[in-house]
């Protein structure tokens, strides 16, 4: 057994050790801080934070979530920022309150938060559910709350039913009619389905909930615009955790709403992963073949030496340059020609002549090509000469030696190249902005319509989503938690992609005990 | 048994021969250079069939180069050029009719460092057979068993043929590589310092194996270990500076070398 011997460092080398260890510590601290920040801010976004009812000294009452507190400029004390919601009543959702003007604050359990399709969140009290009955005496809050829950559940059932009919019945019928406009049977069925959908729509549309802000302004809120309702002050920790889990799940599984500032990021996750997978599929064969040529086939002369230097330097070209190349060559060059030859009917609206999934994947494949070539080449060069000679000495040709002995042994190195390529490509945003990423593309590029994978479609990307949400929303303050959550997600997605490739590499290495005897 | 005749020292072009032995390989006036730098100079000798012939000599004397010329492994080096002929059973191995992969199947090779492929034990032995193709599974199993048996490894691995070849010890790996070479039924087996990376017990096993194999094929052994050459070989060629200095039955060469240069080397008085 090997045992490491620890020697005390000579006194003269003390400062050295401090300097080197210190820089490691600082790097780790910064990395850890970064991950901690985006984790806390991103994950905290989904926690049902308590809502405070604040009575001000001037008699005004507001209700909202306390977000942060800053010292007042030029005077003692501090002011606090509340998220108060109710954009339709107040025209704004944020309120700065000097702490010294707060007369009292409490957290009543009857405060309700409604997440709505329009105008964002509502914070206030429930009055009644259903059409207004003039004679109605005020119901107790508990009964109204449970009625609201039941109605929301019913709404959700109707919504699911509508989506199901649209997906399973309506779309195939529309396709049939489009393919064959004289198909009477299909036309009649289509009319029936439309009737059913209209009826569903009407059933969903009729209901309202009467709500009241804490300062007594009433509002009639159509129930079909309410996505979700909760009473954060009445929730136990377990309920909050469940709500948190549901919030995370909705973030992962739903499409964005409200100019990307709320809702989920599913299309962006899907777009990112699909783009990276396509990129890997494109770059791996090219990179491996190129590396094989450079290392195994070509005469090792000055020319190959120059090519090798050029390939290594290509890895350092800024990514936006690749984006410009992709736009000029793939989109305007090849894409426009493809449109002229094959999609002439659709012109002047472009099919492949505009940015899309294929061009983005190709551009990133080009960007990561040097990484794969270099890693594969190094793997090929590490394979001992005895292995090649051993195969040749048994009567194998050079091609047989390559395919049966050399390439299987170089597989882990190729996967290392792919891992590095994924790590680089998944985080790239700049070139994508030129060749196919979209601010909003609710339709993911894979669906049930032939040819199932739509390479010409624009797609959403987590990296671009972060940029867009942070700078192009209506309310940057409200979008900030979404930015953090998306950033955290991007890190996790890249981690997951890398982990898959690393496990694959580990599998190939371990298969023949290569871990014990790495060539 | 008739005593082989004493040999005259190598002179240019004359082939050293043992008339009582049938020769398998004949090297005629072979010179080899890498990028204009000579590595072998005008070597002529005959390798007797079904005997063990050893090439000895100091490092860099060209013994490995000579060995690798016999299955044309030096073809891989673009800078290598040669003159002279190598005849395998009377046929020039450099002639256009000889396909190099066919030649290498007939002239197998075992290297200094055990080099099993990253596959199972079974697949390693079957590697050469699969290249040829056209064997039934049953026949393949039989040949693999025969080859492992011939390499004295069958008993140790018969229960784990599907295990990775890299899980074997160094000595077992070297015997596996010998089995792999034997599986394609070569006529000649070249061994390039096959035991130099092994422990004494594994070395002993390999040497026994070499002695046992000569009833089936011709073996050529390169070694820097003179005791090993003396223990296993029937004939020994001493090379120095790319030249063949002396070639004789092993007993004669070690007990009664005819040249001062040979004597100096085998007694350890190398300049």
From TrEMBL, chain A:
The terms describing its cellular component in GO are: plasma membrane
- Spans traversing the lipid bilayer: 16-38, 265-294, 314-335, 355-375, 405-426, 482-504
Membrane disposition: Multi-pass membrane protein
One example of the protein's molecular function in GO is: phosphate transmembrane transporter activity
UniProt cross-references to SUPFAM superfamilies, sorted A to Z: MetI-like (SSF161098)
GO process annotations (BP): phosphate ion transmembrane transport
Q: Where is the ABC transmembrane type-1 domain?
A: 269-501
Tell me where in or outside the cell this protein is found.
Cell inner membrane; Cell membrane
Chief location bin: membrane
Say yes or no: keyword Membrane present. Answer: yes
UniProt keywords (A-Z) are: Cell membrane, Membrane, Transmembrane, Transmembrane helix, Transport
Instruction: Name the family.
Output: Belongs to the binding-protein-dependent transport system permease family. CysTW subfamily.
User: What's the protein called, per UniProt?
Assistant: Phosphate transport system permease protein PstA
Source organism per entry reads: Billgrantia pellis
Its gene is pstA
TrEMBL record, chain B:
Q: Which Gene3D superfamilies match?
A: P-loop containing nucleotide triphosphate hydrolases
Positions of the ABC transporter domain: 25-266
InterPro entries from the xrefs? AAA+_ATPase, ABC_transporter-like_ATP-bd, ABC_transporter-like_CS, P-loop_NTPase, PstB-like
Which BP terms in the Gene Ontology apply to this protein? Answer: phosphate ion transmembrane transport
Give one GO term, molecular function aspect: ATP hydrolysis activity
Q: Could you tell me the keywords of this UniProt record?
A: ATP-binding, Cell inner membrane, Cell membrane, Membrane, Nucleotide-binding, Phosphate transport, Translocase, Transport
Keyword Cytoplasm annotated: no
User: Hey, what's the signal peptide range on this chain?
Assistant: none
Alphabetical list of SUPFAM superfamilies matching this protein: P-loop containing nucleoside triphosphate hydrolases
**Is this entry keyworded Kinase?**
no
Gene Ontology cellular component terms for the protein in this record: membrane
What is the name of this protein? Phosphate ABC transporter ATP-binding protein
The protein's organism comes out as: Billgrantia pellis
């Amino acid at each position: 057994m090997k045992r490491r011997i620890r020697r005390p460092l000579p006194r003269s080398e003390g400062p050295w050790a401090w300097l080197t260890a210190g820089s490691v510590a600082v790097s780790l601290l910064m990395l850890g801080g970064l991950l901690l920040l985006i984790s806390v801010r991103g994950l905290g976004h989904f926690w049902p934070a308590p809502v405070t009812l604040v009575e001000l000294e001037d008699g005004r009452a507001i209700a909202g979530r306390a977000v942060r507190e800053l010292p007042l400029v030029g005077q003692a004390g501090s002011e606090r920022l509340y998220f108060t919601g109710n954009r339709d009543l107040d025209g704004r959702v944020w309120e700065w309150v000097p702490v010294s003007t707060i007369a009292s604050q409490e957290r009543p359990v009857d405060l309700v938060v409604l997440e709505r399709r329009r105008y964002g969140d509502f914070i206030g009290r429930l009055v009644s559910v259903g059409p207004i009955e003039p004679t109605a005496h005020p119901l107790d809050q508990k009964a109204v709350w449970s009625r609201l829950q039941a109605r929301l559940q019913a709404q959700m059932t109707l919504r699911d039913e509508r989506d199901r009919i649209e997906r399973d019945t309506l779309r195939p019928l529309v396709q049939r009619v489009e393919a064959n406009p004289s198909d009477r049977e299909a036309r009649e069925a289509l009319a029936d389905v439309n009737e059913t959908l209209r009826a569903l729509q009407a059933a969903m549309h009729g209901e309202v909930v009467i709500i009241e802000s804490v300062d007594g302004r009433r509002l009639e809120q159509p129930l079909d615009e309410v996505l979700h309702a909760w009473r954060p002050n009445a929730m136990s920790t377990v309920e909050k955790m469940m709500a948190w889990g549901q919030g995370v799940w909705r973030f992962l599984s739903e499409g964005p709403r409200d100019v990307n500032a709320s809702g989920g990021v599913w299309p962006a996750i899907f777009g990112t992963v699909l783009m990276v997978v396509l990129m890997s599929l494109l770059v791996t064969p090219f990179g491996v073949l190129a590396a094989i040529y450079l290392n195994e086939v070509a005469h090792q002369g000055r020319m190959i030496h120059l090519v090798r230097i050029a390939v290594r330097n290509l890895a350092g070209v800024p990514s936006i340059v690749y984006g410009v190349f992709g736009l000029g060559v793939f989109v305007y060059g090849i894409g426009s020609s493809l449109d002229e030859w094959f999609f002439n009917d659709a012109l002047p609206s472009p099919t492949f002549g505009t940015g899309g999934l294929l061009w983005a994947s190709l551009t990133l494949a080009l960007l990561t090509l040097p990484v794969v070539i270099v890693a594969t080449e190094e793997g090929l060069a590490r394979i001992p000469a005895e292995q090649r000679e051993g195969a040749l000495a048994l009567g194998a040709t050079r091609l047989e030696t390559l395919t049966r002995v050399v390439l299987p042994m170089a597989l882990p190195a190729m996967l290392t190249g792919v891992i590095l390529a994924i790590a680089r490509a998944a985080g790239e945003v700049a070139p994508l902005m030129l060749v196919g990423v979209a601010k909003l593309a609710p339709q993911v590029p894979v669906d049930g319509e032939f040819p199932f994978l739509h390479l010409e479609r624009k797609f959403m990307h987590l990296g671009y989503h972060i940029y867009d949400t942070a700078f192009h929303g209506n309310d940057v303050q409200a979008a900030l938690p979404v930015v953090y959550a998306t950033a955290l997600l991007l890190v996790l997605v890249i981690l997951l992609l890398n982990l898959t490739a690393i496990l694959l590499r580990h599998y190939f290495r371990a298969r023949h005990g290569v871990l014990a005897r790495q060539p | 048994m008739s005593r082989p005749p004493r040999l005259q020292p190598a002179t240019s072009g004359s082939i050293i021969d043992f008339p009582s032995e049938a020769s398998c390989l004949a090297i005629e006036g072979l010179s080899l250079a890498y990028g204009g730098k000579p590595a072998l100079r005008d070597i002529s000798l005959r390798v007797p069939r079904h005997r063990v012939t050893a090439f000895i000599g100091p490092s860099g004397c060209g013994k490995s180069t000579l060995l690798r010329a016999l299955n044309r492994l030096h073809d891989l080096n673009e800078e290598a050029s040669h003159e002279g002929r190598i005849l395998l059973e009377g046929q020039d191995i450099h002639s256009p009719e000889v396909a190099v992969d066919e030649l290498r199947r007939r002239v197998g090779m075992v290297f200094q460092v055990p080099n099993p492929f990253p596959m199972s034990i079974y697949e390693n032995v079957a590697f050469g057979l699969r290249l040829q193709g056209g064997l039934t599974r049953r026949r393949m199993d039989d040949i693999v068993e025969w080859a492992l048996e011939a390499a004295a490894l069958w008993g140790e691995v018969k229960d784990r043929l599907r295990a990775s070849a890299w899980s074997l010890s160094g000595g077992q790996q070297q015997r596996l590589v010998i089995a792999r070479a034997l599986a394609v039924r070569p006529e000649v087996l070249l061994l390039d310092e096959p035991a130099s990376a092994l422990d004494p017990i594994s070395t002993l096993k390999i040497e026994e194996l070499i002695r046992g194999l000569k009833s089936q094929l011709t073996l050529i052994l390169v070694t820097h270990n003179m005791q090993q050459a003396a223990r296993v070989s029937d004939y020994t060629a001493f090379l120095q500076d790319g030249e063949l200095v002396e070639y004789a039955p092993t007993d004669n060469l070690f007990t009664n070398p005819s040249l001062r240069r040979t004597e100096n080397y085998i007694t350890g008085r190398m300049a």
